[in-house]
Automatic annotation (TrEMBL), chain A:
Upper lineage: Bacteria, Pseudomonadati, Pseudomonadota, Alphaproteobacteria, Sneathiellales
Transmembrane regions: none
PROSITE patterns the UniProt entry points to: ABC_TRANSPORTER_1, ABC_TRANSPORTER_2
Domain ABC transporter: 4-241
Keywords assigned by UniProt, alphabetized: ATP-binding, Nucleotide-binding, Transport
Protein name (record): ATP-binding cassette domain-containing protein
GO MF entries: ATP binding; ATP hydrolysis activity
Alphabetized SUPFAM superfamilies for the sequence: P-loop containing nucleoside triphosphate hydrolases
Domain of life: Bacteria
SMART domains: AAA
Gene3D superfamilies tied to this protein: P-loop containing nucleotide triphosphate hydrolases
Species annotation: Sneathiella chungangensis
From TrEMBL, chain C:
Recorded family membership: Belongs to the binding-protein-dependent transport system permease family. OppBC subfamily.
Protein's organism: Sneathiella chungangensis
Gene3D superfamilies, alphabetized: MetI-like (1.10.3720.10)
Residues covered by the ABC transmembrane type-1 domain: 108-297
Membrane topology term: Multi-pass membrane protein
Chief location bin: membrane
GO molecular function: dipeptide transmembrane transporter activity
Lineage: Bacteria, Pseudomonadati, Pseudomonadota, Alphaproteobacteria, Sneathiellales
GO BP annotation list: protein transport
Chain segments annotated as transmembrane: 46-68, 110-137, 157-183, 229-255, 275-297
Matches recorded under NCBIfam families: Opp2C
Compartment annotation: Cell membrane
Name of the protein: ABC transporter permease subunit
Keywords: Cell membrane, Membrane, Peptide transport, Protein transport, Transmembrane, Transmembrane helix, Transport
Entry annotated with the keyword Cell membrane: yes
Length: 253, 284, 311
């Protein structure tokens, strides 16, 4: 059975001039333990799907189910114990006035954990940060360290599913490698299911087994990573994306 | 032919903990070519671009033996003379067009103003030139864009307009600081095409500052790799994958590749000696 | 990558402990970040000057009975309207022969009392209304902000006058009246900040931990609004002191014989041409304290502004 199943999901935003359809009739299945990639350009609706799953978009239609449970309008705490999300920009996803200790401590308390002190140290160790980082504020951390804290926060409730919204696009390439390795390790250690959004096809090919290409709010193609590596997408748009990602080709003449 | 030569450039910022050297004594030259400057955040690559135009605000300080543009030492110019150089002879494109365009002025007015400050021609001529430039940067409906406000345009459109504006005075040198990193790949390619054409057709010199190794190696002629305010390696762009410096090699290896899957990415381990060793000269 | 040629390495000991990047406990982290704020505040000489004056004023207010050379209420009609520098009356005496210096010193207590009460009531009310309106949005926002608009539409002193007239004259009522007229701008600021904060990723992140609106507003939004409110309050303090003095001047604030500075000016007004110091000296005191608050507010803004503290 699929761990995440989405059928005919549409998400729209009501703005002054009317309505913007961000996601149109999208259906997808993610199996347990799988790593699923969503690629596309900005505005293609890939992040919006993640936000819809965790209930951050108020207006949507269709059906979504996680671990067999149908999702309604509201998400309860039990849901957030199963599904967590890592945001794109680690400079924006940590509260500027809260130390690492406060961020993780509050998260653990909200999920009713008892031995908070021990758990914080364990979480920090899990994401490769020593106990020395525990009482630092975000401005005392580098981008990579911040993203590690954000990952620790997402891991705090011991979720089964981690939604990754461009987790490395704001980071330097050498730091990106560290974070991607960390995410791979965590996935195997904790037996996690990933849904990863990225505009970088190389990153997605490194992390995911199955990849969906999105354009203008629709999924145009779902392929395996092997098909992508062999440059054999069927849809012309996927081909175009793949070719552009290989670098600049000088036009002659 | 060398158009710009930078000799022993330093950029310093006083901080609470002493003086921070953002750029530490780098030298390079630029001909009618595409010169890439690659590095991670904090490597000093953006500071280098701004320092050439003397756009570092106090308390930051710029020192150099000389920064020579076609035989003229920019370090010796007064602020007033420098203003003549900026925009007219050397233009700069920033990363995010949203912060570079005036939100309360139509695109057309801003472009005509850019033309007027470059000191030539009538209003009608300015308008023609603006339309011509919009056309040159592959904007399909120049008239609509001319009368639009910046918020009515997409990011890619905004960036192309910035380029068009910077090109109105026919600069000799264009400094592009991550000009495409906020753009989607397909728009990115269009913008690169435009800059490429300008280098070829007008003999412009281009300094292309970026963190994207793949892009720089495929787009530029020559690459300087910066680390901790110094140039650690200078090489031909198509030879970047044969780079020898451990830092460059480490960066290349840490990139995931579409065509060759790896189980784990190699993590760069930084050698303190890299920051200490002398800067490599980028002069040809 | 930071390479520092630091001429002054950290001196070991407490300073290193305060400036560390790796605090070892919750309190250590709090104290260290406070100390670093203080360090950048200290570099602003004008703000330090403001802080010094206010610290002096607090000390004067606390030790008023010890510092004042005379009883501020004792009348001595034989020595009325003595000029500046008279023996035993450094700043002269007023129309009833009371020592002006002593009255000023005791008046500092009243001014401080008003300032502290208003500074507690108005921003907290504004913070509450603004953040709730901003976070809830919809009809709650509309109702709360229209009420705010109504309060804003009245001139401050006129509204305060109306309240005092209804509640009766006196310091406490003056404080309530000033607070009632002072909160709407704070509500506006808090709402504007909340609107940007509520859409940030860190608020989304805490929502994904199942936090409810009450927790989000009090634990996550308030701490970010408070710094800009503190700045605004210190900048507004001058206006509040003047409003209190204005009410005192009009006879609707502190009642005679209380040595409130505004009331002192009001009394001195009758003799302003022949005995200028009676009204001028308390006027100067008001000016000095207002200025001090403004300077302090400017300095605090540089330190507390969350937009800058990130880097």
């Amino acid at each position: 059975m699929s761990h995440i199943s989405i059928d005919n999901l549409s998400v729209w935003f009501d703005i002054n001039e009317g309505r913007v359809d961000a996601v149109k009739n999208v259906s997808l299945r993610v199996n347990q333990g799988e790593s699923f990639g969503l690629v596309g350009e900005s505005g293609s609706g890939k992040s919006t799907i993640l936000r819809a799953i965790v209930g951050l978009t108020p207006t949507w239609s269709g059906a979504m189910a996680v671990a067999g449970e149908e999702l309604g309008r509201k998400r309860n705490r039990a849901f957030y114990k199963k599904v967590q999300m890592v945001f794109q920009d680690p400079y924006a996803s940590l509260h500027p006035r809260q130390s690492v200790d406060q961020v993780l401590g509050e998260t653990l308390k909200l999920h009713g954990a008892g031995d908070v002190d021990e758990r914080i140290e364990k979480l920090l160790a899990d994401v490769g940060l020593g106990p020395a980082f525990r009482f630092r504020y975000p401005h005392q951390l580098s981008g990579g360290q911040r993203q590690r804290v954000a990952i620790a926060r997402a891991l705090a409730p011991e979720p089964e599913i981690l939604l990754l919204d461009e987790p490395t696009s704001a980071l330097d390439v050498s730091v990106q490698a560290e974070i991607l390795n960390l995410l791979s390790d965590l996935r195997h250690e904790h037996n996690l299911t990933y849904v990863m959004v990225s505009h970088d096809l190389a990153v997605v090919s490194h992390m995911c087994e199955k990849i969906a290409v999105m354009q203008l709010g629709e999924i145009v193609e779902v392929m395996t990573v092997e098909e992508m590596r062999e440059m054999k997408p069927k849809h012309p748009y996927s081909r175009h994306l793949l070719e552009s990602s290989l670098g600049y080709k000088r036009r002659t003449g | 032919m060398t158009r710009l030569e930078v000799d022993n450039l330093w950029v310093k910022f006083p901080t609470r903990n002493g003086i921070f050297d953002a750029v530490r004594g780098i030298s390079f030259s630029l001909g009618e070519e595409r010169l890439g400057i690659v590095g991670e955040s904090g490597s000093g690559k953006s500071m280098t671009g701004r320092a050439i135009l003397r756009l570092i605000r106090p308390p930051g300080q710029v020192t150099a033996n000389h920064i020579t543009l076609d035989g003229q030492n920019l370090m010796k110019l007064s602020e007033r003379e420098m203003r003549q150089v900026r925009g007219r002879r050397i233009s700069m494109i920033m990363q995010d067009p949203k912060f570079s365009l005036n939100p309360v002025m139509t695109v057309g007015r801003q472009m005509m103003e850019a033309y007027a400050t470059s000191g030539r021609g009538s209003k009608a001529l300015a308008r023609d030139k603006a339309m011509e430039m919009l056309d040159a940067v592959a904007i399909r409906d120049p008239l609509r864009v001319f009368n639009a406000y910046p918020h009515e345009l997409s990011g890619g459109m905004g960036q192309r307009i910035m380029i068009a504006m910077m090109l109105i005075p026919d600069p000799d040198i264009l400094i592009a600081d991550e000009p495409t990193s906020a753009l989607d790949v397909s728009v990115q390619m269009q913008v690169l095409d435009i800059m490429d054409k300008l280098v070829r057709d007008r003999g412009m010199g281009l300094i292309f500052i970026s963190h994207d190794l793949n892009l720089v190696s495929s787009f530029c002629d020559r690459v300087l790799i910066m680390y901790a305010g110094r140039i650690v390696e200078a090489c031909a762009a198509d030879k970047l994958h044969e780079a020898t410096h451990p830092y460059t090699r480490g960066l290349l290896k840490s990139l995931p590749q579409l065509d060759e899957p790896r189980r784990r990415l190699e993590v760069l381990s930084r050698d303190p000696a890299w920051a200490e060793s002398e800067s490599v000269s980028g002069i040809t | 990558m930071s390479i520092f040629n630091s001429p002054e390495r950290y001196t070991a000991g407490w300073r290193a402990w305060l400036l560390t990047d790796t605090p070892t406990s919750r309190n250590h982290a709090r104290i260290a970040s406070f100390y670093q704020g203080w360090l950048s505040f200290r570099t602003n000489p004008m703000a330090m000057f403001g802080l010094l004056i206010l610290a002096l004023m607090v000390l004067i207010a606390i030790f008023a009975p010890l510092l004042a050379p005379h009883d501020p209420l004792v009348q001595d009609l034989a020595n009325r309207l003595q000029p500046l520098g008279t023996d035993a009356h450094l700043l002269g005496t007023d129309s009833l022969g009371r020592d002006i210096l002593s009255r000023l010193i005791h008046g500092a207590r009243i001014t401080l009392y008003i300032v502290i009460l208003v500074a507690l009531i108005a921003p907290i009310a504004g913070l509450f209304v603004g953040t709730v309106a901003g976070y809830a949005g919809g009809w709650i926002d509309t109702i709360l902000m229209r009420i705010t608009d109504i309060f804003l539409a009245f001139p401050r002193l006129v509204l305060a006058l109306a309240f005092v007239a209804a509640l009766g004259a006196g310091i406490e009522n003056a404080v309530i009246a000033i607070s009632l007229t002072a909160w709407p701008p704070y509500a506006r600021i808090a709402r504007a900040e909340t609107l940007t904060i509520r859409n940030t990723d860190y608020i989304s992140a805490i929502k994904l931990q199942g936090a409810g609106p009450f927790r989000i507003i009090t634990r996550h939004i308030w701490p970010l609004c408070i710094s800009s409110l503190i700045v605004r309050v210190t900048l507004d303090m001058a206006g509040i002191i003047l409003a209190a003095a204005g009410l005192g001047f009009l006879g609707l604030g502190a009642q005679p014989p209380s040595p409130e500075w505004g009331a002192m000016i009001s009394e001195g007004r009758k003799f302003i041409l022949d005995h200028w110091w009676v009204a001028t000296v308390p006027g100067l005191a008001i000016f000095l304290v207002s200025l001090a608050f403004n300077l302090l507010g400017d300095g605090l803004r540089d330190v507390l502004d969350p937009k800058d503290s990130g880097s």
